[in-house]
Design a protein that fits this description.
Layout (H helix, E strand, L loop, with lengths): L5 H16 L5 H9 L3 H9 L6 H11 L1
Length: 65
């Protein structure tokens, strides 16, 4: 699997939130809580400031399927 980039991460995160709640607002906080990560970590992934770990990328890809 190719490494997930920030744009893909954001699209999947927003899409998952929209799928389960009907809206994309607040997806970073919800995802952080569900993954046991800080919101700041999720924001680093979204901004491209930190690499998205393979397990996180696989989980998001699975949830989006």
């Amino acid at each position: 699997m190719n490494r997930m980039n920030a744009q893909e991460f954001t699209q999947l995160g927003e899409g998952i939130q929209r799928r389960f709640t009907g809206k994309s607002r607040g997806w970073q906080s919800t995802l952080a809580f569900q993954l046991g990560l800080s919101v700041r970590t999720i924001r680093r992934y979204t901004a491209g400031d930190s690499k998205i770990p393979e397990p996180v990328a696989r989980l998001l890809t699975g949830l989006a399927a």
